[in-house]
Amino acid sequence: MMRVVALVTIMIIFSSGCLLAEEPKLPAQSESTGAIGTIGLESENRGPVEIPQPTEKALSYYRSGNVLYLVDIFWGILISALFLFTGFSAKIRNWAAGLGRKWFFIIGIYIVIFTIINFLIDLPLDFYQSFVREHSYGLSNQTFGKWFKDSTMSLLITLVMGALLAWIPYWLLKKSPRRWWLYAGILVIPFTFVFSLIYPIWISPLFNDFGPMHNKNLEAQILALADRAGIDGGRVFEVNKSVDTKAVNAYVAGFMGTKRIVLWDTIISKLDENELLFVMGHEMGHYVLRHVIAGVLFYSVLILLALYAAHKTAGIFLRKFSSRFGFDQLADIASLPLLILLLNIFSFITAPIGNTYSRFIEHQADQFGLEITQDNYAAATAFVKLQAENLSNPYPGFLYKLWRSSHPPIGERIEYCNTYKPWEKGQELRYEEMFRNPQRKP
User: Fold this and answer.
1) For residue 309, what are the domain limits?
2) β 235-239/210-212 pair status
3) Is 440 domain-assigned?
4) C-alpha to C-alpha distance for 102 and 100, rounded to whole angstroms
5) 56 is catalytic
6) What DSSP designation does 251 have?
7) 219, 238, 283, 415: which one is catalytic?
8) How many domains does the chain divide into?
């Protein structure tokens, strides 16, 4: 989850032309009224849950997703290279200079032109990936009008934020050509926190309707679970995502006054209440264990390393190709495609490190969710349903896990839900001291 937020922030600073318009996904890969203190009692005597074999449709979705992943990488490199080696980026800078005259306005105008051109270039591929393909696999309810509206809204947000913020790294490049990467990397931290603060209340509602929970009994149980997890002042929202997708998700987002618990209406309709409570226990685990803060700091280090690598290697390109590029220093706004190209390459190289960390904190959240609900059966069946609804492959390949899996494979998660039961042996729970009024099963 936090890897996405951190990368979005740095790409906003460098205005790459794309903005996150999705909430963090809960699972990877794709009516009871019991009180919180007895969540697990209903299903504690049931046996282990079998891990379903992936359907042919799920395997097809998995394989085609791998192909598209590689296509995206190649496409990103190709487009950036074309902007550079044709001198087109320098031409955009010249257009911007003719219109803006002053440095700040030149950067803003360049960002607007560059972003719109990238949007149009990427539009066919994005349309296939996020609309045609999702409909062909039965994962989307979205109309073309809604898809185009959301895409346009993402473009407008990117234009505004890019035009307002892109001057910062270029001011650093201008003032400190040798240490700009360090200062930019440090600035990623507050920018990411601010983005995490405003995203739930100002950006997410631009794409979907957020409203109160319709099932008040479920809302009461979620709030009781949040209270037991030590989360005060949170509000529960139900978001109308069924207009966009058939996939399921839930999350806890925001800080301080923006703290909120969000469930997609799709997950409410497809999981029973005990399963939903485990899902929320998992998401509350992220919040209580401060994964947001830890994630921001961890991924900021990776971004800092990527910026340093870009700084060290950019000179090689500039010395060899400055005449073709039409610029000879990174402080020139025309260097933006070069920075994006290098950052994308180094982000790809460090992806296994980021994904390993992400899987680690996701496992911690699974453990937290199991300990606070003590309902192994509901947890395992929740993952079974998530596997089916999101067309997941329970055991993806090794390279997929390294480069694409931000969550543990769903098969491993079901196995863990089947076996992790320290409370049945009277053993100490790892996170019990964080629970209010901890209760053990007799």
Assistant:
1) 2-434
2) antiparallel
3) no
4) 6
5) no
6) E
7) 283
8) 1
